[in-house]
Amino acid sequence: MKQPEFVLLLSCPDRRGIVAEVSSFLFERNCNILDSQQFGDRANNRFFLRVHCLSEGGIGISVLEQEFGVIAASFGMQARFFDTARKSRALIMVSKFGHGLVDLLYRTRIGAIPMEVPLIVSNHRDYEDVAAAANIPFVHLPVTRDNKAAQEARLAALMEENHVDLIVLARYMQILSEEFCRMRLGRIINIHHSFLPSFRGANPYTQAHERGVKLIGATAHYVTGALDEGPIIDQSVERVTHAMSPDDYVAVGRDIESRTLARAVKWHCEHRILLNGRKTVIFS
Fold first, then answer.
1. I want to staple 169 with a disulfide (CB 3.0 to 4.6 A). Which of 119, 176, 190, 279 is the partner?
2. What is the pTM of this model?
3. How far apart are CA 181 and CA 85, in angstroms?
4. Residues 6 or more apart in contact with residue 98 via CB below 8 angstroms
5. Which residues participate in catalysis according to the annotation?
6. C-beta atoms surrounding 183 within 10 Å
7. Helix axis angle, 246-269 relative to 99-109, nearest 10°?
C-alpha cells in the first residue's frame, strides 16, 4: 500500500521552538521529512514554513490535522495539510483572448501542472469549442450591469457543485465584485499586462507602442476587492524595440502572460505560496 505523502503549510508569529515542535510532532508519528523550507519576516515578525513529508507509518491527513491542532493553537498558527495525491480542482474563466486558457489546458494534460479542470466559464462563447475538444463542460455566463449579482451567485454555486479549489482568470475581462473576491482570498488568480496603471482601458499594447516602451511585462496575482492590487505571485518582462509593430507587442505579451500565469497556477497547486499581508511568500 502506498504511503501517504503530504505538504504542511503554516504561518504564525515568529518565536523560538517552532521548527523543533513541528519536527518532533512529525517524527513521533513516523513521518519522514522529504523537503523543508522556512522564512522569518523580521519586518512583521511572521514565520512561514513548508514541509513536504512521507507518512511512513501510514497515518492519514485527517488524523494529522486533528492532532496538530494543539500545536497550531499554542503558536497561533494558520496551518493546513495537503494530500499530494489529490490534484487541485481549478475553474478557468476566459473571455475573448484564449492563449492563457489553451496553454493551461495543455500543461494540465501533460501533467506539468498538478490540477484538474472540471469546468470552463466564459461571458462569451468564443472558446466553447476548445472546452468541447478537451471534454470539459463549458458554461456561458454573459454579464451585464443588471445581472452581475445573479451571475456571481451562479458562479459561486458552480464552484460548490464542482468542488472547486481555485478560480483562474485567464484573461477574463469582467471585474468580480469586492464581496465575491474577499470571501475567496488566496483562491482566485488573475493575469494582466504589467503596464497597469500606466496604460488602462482598451488596447494597452497599442498604447505602449505609441509611448515607445522598451519592456513588456505580465503580472500574476491573487485577486482582492481592489482592482489589480492583490498580492503578486509572479512577474515577467521581455524587451521590445522601435522596429516592432503593435501586433508584435501583442504576440510578445501573449507569450509572457501564458508563461507567467502557468507558473503562478503551478506554484499554487503545488502548495508553495503563503500570504504575507499584501505580499506572498513562495517556496521553490
1. 190
2. 0.93
3. 28
4. 126, 127, 130, 170, 171
5. 228
6. 12
7. 40
What is the C-alpha separation between 151 and 270, in angstroms, rounded? 30
What is the grid cell recorded at 111?
501533467
Q: How many C-alpha atoms does 171 have within 13 Å on its Cβ side?
A: 23
The H-assigned helical ranges of 189-245 are: 204-211
Tens-place pLDDT, residues 207-253: 888 888 888 899 999 999 777 789 999 999 999 999 999 999 999 99
Cell of 209: 507602442
For residue 97, CA distances in Å to 171, 251, 257, 258 come to 6, 12, 11, 11
- Return the closest-CA partner of residue 169 out of 143, 188, 197: 188
- H helices within 134-203, ranges in order? 148-161, 178-182
Per DSSP bridges, beta strands 232-239 and 273-276 are unpaired
